[in-house]
Design a protein that fits this description.
There is one protein chain. With about 240 residues, the chain is α/β, with parallel strands linked by helices. It has ten helices and ten strands. It folds into two domains: about 150 residues, 3-Layer(aba) Sandwich (Alpha/beta knot); about 80 residues, tRNA(m1g37)methyltransferase, domain 2 (Trp Operon Repressor, Chain A). The longest helix is centred in the C-terminal third of the chain and has 19 residues. The structure holds adenine (ADE). Adenine binds next to β5.
Length: about 240
């Protein structure tokens, strides 16, 4: 997958390139990440990318021209057609289903806004979609774009060590994750649930499903409203609730 990021702060993407799962995916060429700085596509001596807002008010607004020039260069750099996405708190809120849809594309073009925002005419003419990573305001779209790069990278084939890890993620089946344990078996009297030591894989799977259902019911009940629970899941959840009392 190829990912082009339009940003005034390309250094903010260094850690994705240098570290962890994304770093390895990039080194192994499973992800091609390229940054583009609108400042390199300016015509004036000061390399201006922003100006004061018409109508007054605080802050600065990113101008159409440098961004449009940058996007033209991005488009010309590869024959793979792609939607242009703007990172913005006004966008559709990202969830795992959206991440999976983005991960299946061949190419992403992500624009990071800065300052008070971007001239609306650029959005009207050159932006195809807007994504928010949550209902809070960041000082720029860079962290949001980094979130998308990370989340889509780990879904690419052979990026995670064990391909099942992505399938077992929280949310990949609409539920929160079940609890995990590792050695030692006993931490100051706090023991690992017995079933996990039983070697009975069917019982372990059932326990994990029950915990995932129970936690989702406790912490994010609205996620369950979106699902159609099987008879078996309903029984597991009833069991979980029953165990609480
Ligand atoms: N830019 C500023 N805040 C943002 C958010 N919550 N999501 C995406 N881009 C942003």
């Amino acid at each position: 997958m190829r990912i082009d990021v339009v940003t005034l702060f390309p250094d903010e993407f260094r850690q994705l390139v240098d570290l962890g799962v994304t770093g390895r995916a990039i080194r192994e060429d499973k992800i091609q990440l390229q940054t583009w700085n609108p400042r390199d596509y300016t015509a004036d001596r000061h390399r201006s990318v922003d100006d004061r807002p018409y109508g007054g008010g605080p802050g600065m607004v990113m101008m159409v021209e440098p961004l449009a020039e940058t996007l033209e260069a991005v488009a010309e750099d590869s024959s793979i057609a792609a939607k242009v996405a703007l990172m913005s708190p006004q966008g559709k809120v990202l969830d795992q289903a959206a991440v999976e849809a983005l991960a299946s594309r061949q190419r992403l073009i992500l624009i990071c806004g800065r300052y008070e925002g971007i001239d609306e005419r650029l959005i009207d003419t050159l932006v195809d979609e807007e994504w928010s990573i949550g209902d809070y305001v960041l000082s720029g779209g860079e962290l949001a774009a980094a979130v998308i790069v990370d989340a889509v990278s780990r879904l690419q084939a052979d990026v995670l060590g064990d391909n099942r890890s992505a399938e077992q993620d929280s949310f990949s089946h609409g539920l929160l994750d079940y609890p995990h344990y590792t050695r030692p078996e006993d931490v100051a009297g706090d023991k690992v649930p017995k079933v996990l030591l039983s070697g009975d894989h069917a019982a372990i799977e059932k326990w994990r499903r029950k915990q995932a259902l129970g936690r989702t019911w406790q912490r994010r009940p609205e996620l369950l409203d979106k699902m159609e629970l099987s008879k078996q899941d309903q029984a597991l959840l009833a069991d979980f609730i029953n165990d609480l009392t």
